[in-house]
Each structure stands twice: as C-alpha cells, then as structure tokens.
Design brief:
The chain contains nine helices and 55 strands. It is globular, with a radius of gyration of 33 Å. The longest helix has 17 residues. The chain has 768 residues and is mainly beta. Strand 13 and strand 14 form a beta hairpin. It starts with 11 loop residues before the first helix and ends with a helix. It has an eight-stranded mixed β-sheet. Strands 18, 20, 21, 22, 24, 25 and 26 form a seven-stranded mixed β-sheet that branches.
C-alpha cells in the first residue's frame, strides 16, 4: 500500500457550501465477516454511486448507500464524494450486516469490494485498488474528476464555474448560450479532465502489461463523446451543439468500453442521464445548478478495457425515475433501463450498475438452428447449427423431438450442417445439441419448428431498405420471404426496371447491393419466383428517396509547434480529402481569428503574431463549400517563447507570384530584413518544401521553379536563422496555375510535385 496521497480537491457542492475535505493517504479497511470463495465464472456486480458530500446531504445517507449495495447485490462498489471515513463507514455497515467488504479510499473517492484487495494507491483525482477474483486480478479505479470548467453548461447559457474570466461562476450568461465549438472545447480542456484520463490510460497500460483487467467508474463531471450527437442536438437544451466530449473520446480511442452505451447505443431513446437526479428528501432548488435549463447529462460511468476478462451481461440505472428540469420535478419518459428505484435516495446523482461475468475457463457457448419455416414432404431441407463463439471442433446432433436425425455432424469454424428429407406432414420440432470441445462448453439450441406439408405453400414477400439514400452510395436491398423459402430467386425492380440479375434465395432471404445514380423517389419491389412446393409472391412498394450528399472532410492542423513573441509565424492546416474551395479559420485561444484560403493541395496557411509567451491553443475550422461539409480540427498546442535580448529579430517577405503558366519558369524571391541576417530560406507550397534550403545573400534568397499542375496554392518563405538571428516566416502568397485538373480527380500534392505527380523529377520542377 502506497501512502502520501494529497488531493486538496473540493467538489462543486463542497465549494459552494465551504465544506473542506481533508487530504490524506490511501487507506485500506479491514473487516472480519466470512467471505465466500470466488470461482471461475464469478459474477461481478459493479455499482458506481456518488454519496453527495460523504452521505451528509440526506439524513441517514450512508446507511441508504449500504442498503442500495445490498439491494442491488453489488460486490464491487465505486464511491465518489466519499472520503476515508465515509468509505470505511459503508464497508463496516455491510460487514456488520454479515457480508465482508474490503475498503480502499482517498479523500474524495473510495472502493469497497467483497473480493480481497491486494494493494491500493492514489492516482490524480482517483483511488486505485487491485482486487482479486478467482485468481484474476482487476485494477479498479474510482474517479471523481474536476467539477470546474463544467463546459456542458455553456450551450445552456450558464457559467462553467471557471476560476476567472467570462465563464466564471455558475450564473446565467448575459450573452446567452455559447455554441462556438472551439470555445467549448478549450474551456473543457482547461478543466484538466482529459489530461487526467490520459494519465489513467497510461497507468492502466502498465497494469494490462501485468495481465490485469481494468475497471474504471465514477463521476466524470463531463458528458460522453457518444451523447451530444446530431440526433440529440435539439434535446436537453443542447441548442444545436454536436460535440465529441474529449475525456470519454480519449477512453474510447484507447479501447475502453462504456458499459451503458455499449448495451444501449442510441442516446435519443436511452439518454441514460445521471445528473441531476430527483431526491424526494430535497427541494429542486437544493439540486439544480442551472434552474432555467434542462441540464440532464450522463456523467457517471463504468468502463472496462476491450481485452478484459470481464464480459458484460447487464447494465442499467439505479435511482429515482424522476429528475429535475428547469427547477421542477419531472418524470423520465425515456426507454432507459432502470434496474432499481428505491423510495429513499441519498444523493443528487443516479447510480450505475453493470454486471460482468469473469471468463477464466472454457467459453460458454450458444447454439442456434437455421432452417426454413416450412418444407414440402419428400423435399430435401438443409439444417444448419451455428455455435457462438465459433468453436473449432466438436459435433452437433440434430434432433426431431427426441429422435436423432442421422449421425452427429462435425463442427467447423462454429458451423455444422446436414440435409434432411421429411416423410410425414405436420410440425417438426428441431433442436441442435453441441457436444462441446476443448475450451468450449456444450449447449443446446432452442426449438426450431418446421411445418411439413404436401400442398403448395403461399408466401409473402417484403422489402427491407432505407427510406433514403445518397446518390452514388451503395445501398443494400433485402427481400424476406415468409414462410422462409429454401430456394428460388428474387428479382428487384425500380418501377418496371430490373435492378441487375435475380438474386438467389437462401433461408427465406435474398439481397443485392445497388447504387442509385439519379436523385428523386425510387419505387422498389421484390418479385419472388417460388420454388418446388412454394408459390411465388410480389412485395408492396418500398420508396427510397435519393439525394446528393455533402462530401465529409477531416481537418488537421500541422504547424507550427513553437513560436516567438512578436515574430510572425504561419499557421498550417490540411483538409482531407483535398477539395476545391472554402477557407480555414484559425482561432487562437478562443478569441483571435485569422483565415487562409484552401489551396488545391488541400492546405491552408495564415500568418499570425503571438503577443504573449506561454502555452497557446489553436483550433482550425474548415468552412466547407458547395457539396462539401465543413470540419473542425482537434485543438493544437503551440509553445510561445520570448526572444532572447542577444538575438536579432528578423522579418521575411515573399515577392508576389500571381499567375504562372504550366511549365513556365518563375523565380521565387524572399527578402530578409536586416540584410546582414545570416541563415537560409526554405520555400514551401502548402506544407511541402520546394527544393532544399537556399542561403541568404545580402538579405535575398531566390529559387527557380516550374509548375506543371493547375490550381491555386499558398506559397511561403521561412527564414531559418543562424546563431544570433531569430527565425521568421513570410505572409503567404497565392500562386495560380491555369488549366483544368484531370477529370474526376482531386489534385492533392501527388499532382503538384515532380515525381509525385505529373511534374517530372524535382530538378525539373525547381530548376538549378
């Protein structure tokens, strides 16, 4: 056990109520009740709950927490807003009730577990404990991240609780909701929450290298990257904002799995809001922090790593089925999975419960049967068994009721099949019994009923397809025949026009992929041919509306990493794919803005001069253009230093270039001031160097060049000073090379530079 953890952190509620939490070392509690042994296949029931000021906000709060643990049968509990005393109190209450709980805690978070804790340490804003279940070690983290810079309030028109500046405090903003993504992202990053999660990811990687699974839960004070989507932009007072919140985005990028969203991926039907929760013992004004807004968000989570031995079986919300909206109690109307809603509730958050199965031995399997719903007497039918996860061996015995259908069939890659001819009419109850094999447990399928008859079977055909599609995008059209026909074909039609050749029916389904090349409504039907003993049928019309979609782009900022105060630098961004038209706006520290045109090579450059030293943040936003969607780059850090007094500041000027014909020679000229500046000049087109560095002579550097690709480009000159002279960059100059690009291509850098495209070698491009 490592000691010396000192957080000195106050929760939002502690800050406003001036209730200081003493910092202290990680403590591990001890208890004496009997603990049942944990065997492979143990169920891990993880509860993450905020105690609301160490259980003091509601009378009897800690006992309520203990009762909730008992009611949910949680055996691993992640506690937030819970100091050493509160954490150990909950563990002791449970122990005294007859179930042993180990405890580990810091001054603001804690972990209690029915499974042994082999060690506990502190991590920034977190408690970490290693619990052992059936010989499997799980590195478990309880997180309560910084409540300040609560950027989710900005789109709702409320302050974010910043330390200072325009968003300080928690009151209504005089300017109304903030919907500028760059400002919201910058404010959120200033909370330190994303940086804290990066520290966790690095620590978890060390634990994973030791063969440990990872479990993370708690109150993040930030919504999920999966929740503020286009589908929810007009819900919960998002005011049109669509934003991938950074903290959970980093977790997902590192392969961690959000238990609730993995089970319920649609944030519209299952928003999963945990804050604010209604509390029957409190008035709404004791809970709400944005009383004129709908401030509901999912900020309490349980995550596991993707390589974990923990398999999720159930997850849901624990807490009241009501919430606080605009300072009023409101019943939840979502489809969220509420597992338990007690009459008494200790906190202003809802809790999360996720149930996992530990997989240490043979894998549990599921066997299913694929077969037609109906068959003709005397006609051959294929019966297929699918074993999940895909077993590499073993056998499957097919049964008709209790009667074996031939010999067991060998399983290959999770599949086994036989062909069967039924000689009696009526319903046949088919099951498949998987024998099991090394590493895979046996399993038996549910009954699949096949109706066998002598008469021709009447069918119904339906079409599955999207309501809308984009011109030029592939769309899957699927026909379903009921009862499931074992053969025949389906001809898909757009009006009266056949869409390719007839598709073969397998197990009642036939599909094709089609690309629509005209906009408008397309009326799709599917005509089933029928087969032996089964009649054909035609579907009703399915209308698909086809339209032209915008091209999706990605914007990335590429330079510079550093700069000097008072010295002009060029901000570079690239847009992919390289498209024609539009501009890139660079926003520095959420305030200053400069703009550069997007060149044919997909690069935009704009000059900017920093006036203060220190770390700065720049966000690049592409405007988009006709048929092309805009995009926003991640925040780009730039370190700005003060020029040392002994060094000479310089300026670099690039002579205008204007229009240059394809293949025509042109000389690029850069002038460096003062004229005695010692160093070299690197000419660039977009992000790409033009030739090598050119030595400055009497304040001038020149480079002969020819250009063989048409388009519009940004050209710059960057002076790299020798000792005693400060680097400088020119303002971008626009180069226009007339002529049309090759039809159907987006001319990127491959079409501009020498052997990379149609310009020959670099010597031919730049001259001697």
């Amino acid at each position: 056990m490592e000691a010396g953890f000192s957080m000195n952190v106050l929760t939002r509620r502690q800050m406003l109520k001036a209730m200081a939490t003493a910092a202290g070392a990680v403590t591990v509690g001890t208890t004496t009740a009997q603990l049942a042994g944990a065997a492979p296949g143990t169920e891990i029931r993880v509860l993450a709950i905020n105690t609301w000021l160490n259980g003091t906000s509601v009378s009897g709060g800690l006992q309520m927490v203990a009762d909730i643990v008992t009611a949910t049968r949680a055996n691993v509990v992640i506690l937030t807003e819970s100091n050493n005393s509160a954490t150990n109190s909950v563990a002791t209450r449970l122990t005294n009730a007859g179930t042993k709980f180990y405890a580990a805690s810091t001054s603001d978070t804690g972990i209690i577990s029915q499974f042994p804790i082999s060690g506990a340490t502190s991590l920034s804003w977190m408690t970490k404990a290693i619990i052992t279940v059936g010989g499997i070690e799980i590195a478990t983290y309880a997180a309560h991240l910084n409540y300040k810079y609560y950027a989710t309030y900005l789109p709702r028109g409320y302050g974010a609780g910043n330390d200072s500046g325009e968003f300080s405090g928690w009151n209504k903003l005089p300017g109304g909701p903030v919907t500028d993504l760059a400002k919201i992202q910058l404010n959120n990053n200033n909370s330190g929450r994303p940086a804290t999660i990066t520290s966790f990811i690095n620590d978890a990687a060390v634990e994973q290298s030791k063969g440990r699974s990872i479990l993370l839960g708690g109150d993040f004070n930030e919504p999920s990257a999966l929740d503020w989507t286009d589908g929810t932009k007009n819900m919960f007072d998002h005011n049109g904002v669509v934003i991938p919140w950074e903290t959970t985005r980093r977790l997902q990028a590192a392969g961690f799995i959000d238990s609730y969203r993995s089970k319920y991926p649609n944030p519209v039907t299952h928003p999963g809001a945990t804050w604010p929760s209604d509390n029957p013992a409190k008035s709404p004004s004791d809970i709400s922090w944005a009383p004129a807004a709908d401030e509901r968000d999912r900020i309490d989570y349980i995550f596991t790593d993707s390589a974990s031995k923990l398999s999720l079986t159930e997850t849901g919300i624990v807490g009241p089925r009501s919430t606080i909206v605009r300072n009023q109690r409101v019943a939840e109307t979502s489809q969220d999975n509420f597992i338990y809603s007690p009459a008494q509730w200790p906190t202003d958050h809802k809790a999360m419960l996720s149930v996992y199965q530990i997989n240490t031995g043979a894998a549990t399997t599921t066997t299913t049967v694929e077969a037609p719903d109906s068959a003709k007497k005397g006609a051959a039918v294929t019966l297929t068994a699918n074993v999940t996860p895909a077993a590499p061996g073993g056998t499957v015995q097919f049964l008709d009721g209790a009667t074996p259908l031939g010999d067991p069939a060998t399983v290959t890659n999770g599949t086994a099949s036989i062909t069967r001819t039924f000689d009696t009419n009526g319903d046949h109850a088919i099951t498949a019994v998987f024998s099991g094999t090394t590493g895979f447990l046996e399993s038996t399928s549910e009954i699949k009923t096949i109706t066998v008859s002598t008469d021709n079977i009447v069918t119904t055909t339906t079409v599955e397809a999207p309501d809308s599609a984009k011109k030029g995008a592939a769309v899957t059209l699927t026909a379903n025949i009921a009862p499931a026909a074992p053969g025949g074909t389906v001809q898909f039609l757009d009006g009266a026009t056949p869409l390719g050749a007839p598709a073969t029916v397998e197990n009642g389904t036939a599909s094709i992929t089609h690309t629509f090349d005209t906009n408008g409504d397309h009326t799709i039907t599917a005509v089933f041919s029928g087969t032996t003993g089964i009649l054909g049928s035609t579907s009703e019309i399915k209308t698909i509306t086809v339209s032209t979609d915008n091209i999706v782009t990605t914007t990335t900022m590429t330079a510079p990493d550093s700069a000097f105060v008072g010295q002009a630098v060029n901000l570079h961004a690239t847009v992919s794919p390289a498209v024609l038209g539009g501009t890139v706006e660079f926003t520095v520290d959420g305030n200053d803005k400069v703009t550069g045109p997007l060149g044919t090579d997909g690069t935009a450059v704009a000059s900017y001069t920093f006036t203060t030293a220190g770390p700065h943040s720049v966000v690049a936003r592409y405007s988009g253009t006709q048929g092309v969607a805009g995009s926003l780059a991640p925040t780009f850090p730039i370190s700005v230093a003060v020029v040392q007094p002994a060094n000479v500041q310089t300026t670099t000027t690039l002579a205008p270039i204007g229009t240059v014909a394809k293949g025509a020679p042109v000389t690029l000229k850069a002038t460096v001031n003062p004229a005695n500046a010692n160093g070299k000049v690197q000419f660039k087109i977009g992000d790409t160097p033009l030739g090598g560095r050119v030595t400055v002579s009497n304040g001038v550097a020149t480079l002969p060049a020819t250009f063989a690709a048409s388009g519009t480009f940004s050209v710059t000159a960057e002076f790299i000073g020798a000792a005693g002279f400060v680097d400088s960059s020119s303002t971008p100059q626009t180069l226009t090379v007339p002529g049309d690009p090759d039809p159907g291509t987006n001319p990127g850098t491959g079409g501009i530079f020498g052997s990379l495209g149609n310009l020959g070698n670099l010597g031919n491009l730049f001259g001697s």
